[in-house]
């Protein structure tokens, strides 16, 4: 896949490269043409510059000559002004010289006239040359502007091409990086796929072995236990209970509930339509309150009054059909027995429509024959009579198809299973036809009502009745449209659900077999319910596994606890022996203390009577407390602290005794602590030894797994080397292809740079011009 994608990308890039190369050649030709044009314009510009310089030189010479002539004229005028007063003074002498002066004046006038004409001619030439120069300069400037614009456009095209080439280069580089990453990911995926294939092969092998064993077991069970294959014959297979599809049953119940709601709305609209039609007959064209209506309308009204007995059963039949579809049943055409009753009620309603149709048509004709009926109203009545015929025909068509759908539940040979789908599609078409007919009736009756409301004899009762009929017709139209769209939306599901039935068969053969199947289904459900018993609460597997590990590795194992109990019992026995020993010692000390206290009391009586009262009162407390060990130690210590006249020797002995008693208590507590620690350490050592044994077992298992993993790794390494070689070959081919593309792109870059340089030179030359 990756190689195909790469080839497609490279083909696209090659096509783009060929297009760009063709554009580059066109641009080259354009640049060469522009260079030739610029060279021709340069030559023209040089010629114009030369002509302009010549004209400027002539202009300068003419201006210089003109200045000289102007100075000459001024001198002549001064001489003339000087010569005029002299001539007045010397008329006489001037008469002789006047002739000379007149000749000179005429000569000067002729010279001046020539110079003026020449000056005028030079001015005209200068003006024409200046205008021509300006015109040529304007043309050259416009040409220069167009050339600059063209050069800018060419520069923009060249910049766009360079940008495009750079983008393609970057894109190719990115594609190269992506392809490298993709190749790495593909290598990883290949490794994973190999591992998965190995695992799948192992699983497939295990499954094959398992399934072969199960197949042999099932074949042996079938050969020993199954007397015959009931799915081989359709008569027996129809009695088998199919798999329970709760979703299908809930869907069918939901659909039946929607259909029931639509049928209820349709029944209400039909009741209103027939009832209001009966009221209209009593009002128009003859009001029954004023005059008697025709016998035809009386009979028609009598029949319409019975409409509820024909319309209400449709709702009841649909309700019974909805109630028969439950979650526990199997809903197919062979088991929907209540559809037959709905079909019968629909047939009775069709008979009612056939019975009232002639009277309805005659009633409309009677309305047309009345004097109040106009031509427009007569046309609407004719259209309504046609619509009523169509409505009855549509109901008959619908009843025919519903009756066909009810046949499988009563007569299995009445409708072939292959025709179920065509019948259902025809039911949908009939419902759409009913909707179209009701739209026409609504349209024509609305026109009829508007015409009747414009009549001068129209009463308020007639207007109200017409509005009620129109509302019932609109409700009928809406209900028919809803039912038609509902059936069209669910017809595919109805056709697909027809295959719902016994396994490996075309369906139920007869209603009797379907009924037997439902009875077997109930019995099977009761049996499964009886077998269902509440399970006892059990410990989850994970928790039990954790408890086992705790039991194996805990310090409070059974053996450790038994040893601790045994050691604690031995300690208790030793402590009881020590207690008895110390009790005897305490009694002996108590007797000695009583003697010593008696001696001290006798000694103190001689010294002071008042001081002996304290010991005499405290001694009974010490004697009475001889039943307990702690009370005896208090009795030993109290007389020592209470008497201040005891000699130093006795007080020193008491201090030494108290010190040793405290030391003994401290040592016993330390001994108990050391014993408890030793027991704890012993239990921990046993637990550690068990853990060590378990760890050694796990180590052996892991070493075996490591051996197997090492073998797998070596095998995978061999496969990896082979795949690496194949991928390296592919990558080398790809790298060669990319190198060739990079070379072509570098050539294109060089060509673009040359075009840039040439365009920049042209633009600079044009700007300098």
From TrEMBL:
GO terms for molecular function: RNA binding. Residues 3-72, 137-196, 558-592, 685-719 form a coiled coil. The keyword DNA damage does not apply. Keywords: Coiled coil, Endosome, RNA-binding. Residues 84-104, 608-627, 749-769 are annotated as: Disordered. It comes from Lynx canadensis. The keyword ATP-binding does not apply. Pfam families: KLRAQ, PPP1R21_C, PPP1R21_helical. This is Protein phosphatase 1 regulatory subunit 21. Its main location: other. Transmembrane segments: none annotated. One of its GO terms (cellular component) is early endosome. It is found in: Early endosome. InterPro entries: PPP1R21 (IPR040024), PPP1R21_C (IPR049372), PPP1R21_N (IPR019343), PPP1R21_six_helix (IPR019348). Residues 95-104 have a biased composition (Low complexity). Residues 11-112 form the Protein phosphatase 1 regulatory subunit 21 N-terminal domain.
């Amino acid at each position: 896949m990756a190689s195909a994608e790469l080839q497609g990308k490279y083909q696209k890039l090659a096509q783009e490269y060929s297009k760009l190369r063709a554009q580059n050649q066109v641009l080259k030709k354009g640049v060469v043409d522009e260079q030739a044009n610029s060279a021709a314009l340069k030559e023209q510009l040089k010629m114009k510059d030369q002509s302009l310089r010549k004209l400027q030189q002539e202009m300068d010479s003419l201006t210089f000559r003109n200045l000289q002539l102007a100075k000459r004229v001024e001198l002549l005028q001064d001489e003339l002004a000087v010569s005029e007063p002299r001539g007045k003074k010397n008329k006489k002498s001037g008469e002789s010289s006047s002739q000379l002066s007149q000749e000179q004046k005429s000569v000067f006038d002729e010279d001046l006239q020539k110079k003026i004409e020449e000056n005028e001619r030079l001015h005209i030439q200068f003006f024409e040359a200046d205008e021509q120069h300006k015109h040529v300069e304007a043309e050259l400037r416009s040409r220069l502007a167009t050339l600059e614009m063209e050069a800018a456009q060419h520069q923009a095209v060249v910049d766009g091409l360079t940008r495009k080439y750079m983008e393609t280069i970057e894109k190719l580089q990115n594609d190269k990086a992506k392809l490298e990453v993709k190749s790495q990911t593909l290598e990883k995926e290949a490794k994973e796929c190999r591992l998965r294939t190995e695992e799948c092969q192992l699983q497939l092998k295990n499954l094959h072995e398992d399934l072969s064993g199960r197949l042999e077991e099932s074949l042996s069970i079938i050969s020993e236990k199954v007397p015959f294959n009931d799915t081989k014959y359709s008569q027996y297979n129809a009695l088998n209970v199919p798999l329970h599809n709760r979703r299908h049953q809930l869907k069918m119940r939901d659909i039946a509930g929607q259909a029931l709601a639509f049928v209820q709305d349709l029944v209400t609209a039909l009741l209103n339509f027939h009832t209001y039609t009966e009221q209209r007959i009593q009002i128009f064209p003859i009001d029954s309150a004023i005059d008697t209506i025709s016998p035809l309308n009386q009979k028609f009204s009598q029949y319409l009054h019975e409409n509820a007995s024909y319309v209400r059963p449709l709702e009841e039949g649909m309700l019974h059909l909805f109630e028969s579809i439950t979650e526990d049943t199997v809903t197919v055409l062979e088991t929907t027995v209540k559809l037959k009753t709905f079909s019968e009620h629909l047939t009775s309603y069709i008979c009612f429509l056939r019975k009232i149709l002639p009277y309805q048509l005659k009633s409309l004709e009677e309305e047309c024959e009345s004097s109040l009926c106009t031509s427009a109203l007569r046309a609407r009545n004719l259209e309504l009579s046609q619509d009523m015929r169509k409505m009855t025909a549509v109901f008959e068509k619908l009843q025919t198809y519903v009756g066909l759908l009810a046949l499988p539940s009563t007569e299995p040979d009445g409708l072939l299973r292959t025709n179920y789908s065509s019948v259902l599609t025809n039911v949908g078409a009939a419902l759409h036809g009913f909707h179209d007919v009701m739209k026409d009736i609504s349209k024509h009756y609305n026109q009829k009502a508007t015409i009747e409301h414009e009549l001068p004899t129209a009463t308020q009762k007639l207007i109200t009745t017409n509005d009620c009929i129109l509302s019932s017709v609109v409700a009928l139209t809406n209900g028919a449209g809803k039912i038609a769209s509902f059936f069209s939306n669910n017809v595919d599901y109805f056709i697909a659900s027809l295959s719902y039935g016994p396994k490996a068969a075309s369906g139920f053969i007869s209603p009797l077999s379907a009924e037997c199947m439902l009875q077997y289904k109930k019995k099977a459900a009761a049996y499964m319910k009886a077998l269902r018993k509440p399970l006892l609460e059990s410990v989850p597997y994970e928790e039990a596994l954790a408890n086992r590990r705790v039991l194996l590795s805990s310090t409070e194992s059974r053996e450790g606890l038994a040893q601790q109990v045994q050691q604690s019992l031995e300690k208790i026995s030793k402590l009881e022996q020590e207690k008895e020993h110390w009790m005897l010692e305490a009694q002996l000390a108590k007797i000695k203390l009583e003697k010593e206290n008696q001696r001290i009391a006798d000694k103190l009586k001689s010294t002071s009577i008042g001081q002996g009262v304290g010991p005499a009162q405290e001694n009974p407390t010490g004697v009475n407390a001889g039943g307990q060990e702690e009370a005896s130690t208090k009795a030993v210590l109290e007389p020592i602290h209470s008497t201040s006249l005891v000699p130093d020797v006795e007080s020193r002995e008491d201090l030494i005794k108290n010190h040793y008693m405290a030391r003994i208590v401290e040592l016993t507590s330390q001994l108990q602590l050391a014993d408890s620690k030793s027991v704890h350490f012993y239990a921990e050592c046993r637990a550690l030894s068990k853990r060590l044994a378990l760890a050694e077992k796990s180590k052996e298992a892991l070493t075996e797994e490591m051996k197997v993993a090492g073998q797998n790794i070596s095998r995978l390494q061999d496969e990896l080397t082979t795949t690496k070689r194949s991928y390296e070959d592919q990558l080398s081919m790809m790298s060669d292809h990319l190198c060739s593309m990079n070379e072509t792109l570098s050539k294109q870059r060089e060509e673009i740079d040359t075009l840039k340089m040439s365009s920049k030179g042209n633009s600079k030359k044009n700007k300098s011009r």
